[in-house]
Amino acid sequence: MDRVIKKKTFTLKKVAIYGLSGAFVLFVIYSFVFADRSSKLNVSVDKINVAEVQNGEFREFIPVDGQVMPIKTIRLDAIEGGIIEKKYYEGGIQVEKGDTILKLTNNNLLQSFIREETQAFILMNQLQNTRLQMQQSLFQLQRTLITLDYQIAQAKDLYERSEQLFKEKVISEQEFLRAKLDYERLIKTRVVEVKSQKVDSLNAENTINNSQALLQRTNNNLNMIRQNLENLYIRAPISGRLSTVNGEVGESISPGQNIGQIDDTNGFKVRAQIDEHYLARIYEGLKGTFDFAGGTYELTIMKNYGEVRNGLFEVDMYFEGDVPDGIRRGQTLQIRLQLSENIQAIQIPRGSFYQTTGGNWIFVVDASGDFATRRNIRLGRQNPRFYEVLEGLQPGEKVVVSSYEGYQDKDRLVFK
């Protein structure tokens, strides 16, 4: 009798097949779920720069170059034109206020002065003659009135006696009337003489007033021309260093032409050029610092010109306190112009990474120090040394700040 043999469910072959299939499935699941699929790059530690994230005092400032200039520069412009007759000083020397630098000649101006001076003499003589004639007329009136008063007194006496004699029938009516008419004529003559003298006096006074006004105008013109002649002497308006003298003896100078300038040596200022990007943030009173001869000195913006030329605008800065010894005109200073007050902020050192990331992400070093991973961040203000960190980093963390060239598409840097 035959016996049924049961077939084995799990053979060695099946176990091997199922085992390998399960291992493959687990590998696939691990690869998709647990495995690190990030892009990696092995880098040498010697080729990167690592910096620590700090929490400290942050101040936003920009570097600008400033040129040392005299605190005041006075232009020497010719007020009157003329020919240079004499040159007293050359450029580059110290002059005192009032020193004559150039002397000009102007024949037309000199002739005008002579004409006006002659006219003034003529008017002065005419005025004196008019006053003399007026005085003589007054004297003549007094003499005339004295004579008339004497004649009137005589005629009055004759008239009164003739009137009495006529009443007594001693003289004829004709003689009485003659005496009366002579008396009345003298009275009227005196009245007319007084009125005539008043008119003559008024005319003389008007003539004198007009002559005085004309003489005054002539004297004013004369003084103006005299001042113009004085302006032919070009003098130093302040004490300082005469930087240049543009002109030689015999050269023609036009009115308003610049012949040089004088620098006030009692102080200095610094003129700086700033990128127009910062125009809205620059104001009077803003401060900056610079290093010189082992010390740090402070400057303050006192004037903002505001006019943009070739993408730049200019400001004048003055020294706070004493001017450093050794500062010279034309010297260039590297100034740190402060744009904000000191604040507490998380910050990282500036580095070449910014050119690649634009400050949007950075490689953060793991605590083990073996690798660095990419992390999104947000940066704020900056100065020549640090970036302000607004989001993404904490003090004490370390970041890669060197160039990211070739790292743009990597998620992790593995150090070796």
UniProtKB/TrEMBL annotation:
Q: Which UniProt keywords apply?
A: Coiled coil, Membrane, Transmembrane, Transmembrane helix
Q: What is the superkingdom listed in this entry's lineage?
A: Bacteria
Subcellular location(s): the record lists: Cell envelope
One Pfam family, short name please?
Answer: RND-MFP_C
Tell me which residues make up the Multidrug resistance protein MdtA-like C-terminal permuted SH3 domain: 344-403
Residue spans making up a coiled coil are: 208-235
The record lists the membrane-crossing segments as: 15-35
Q: Which InterPro entries match?
A: MdtA-like_C, RND_pump_MFP, UPF0194_transport
Chief localization class?
Answer: other
- Family label: Belongs to the membrane fusion protein (MFP) (TC 8.A.1) family.
Name listed for the protein in its UniProt record: Efflux RND transporter periplasmic adaptor subunit
Source taxonomy lineage? Bacteria, Pseudomonadati, Bacteroidota, Cytophagia, Cytophagales
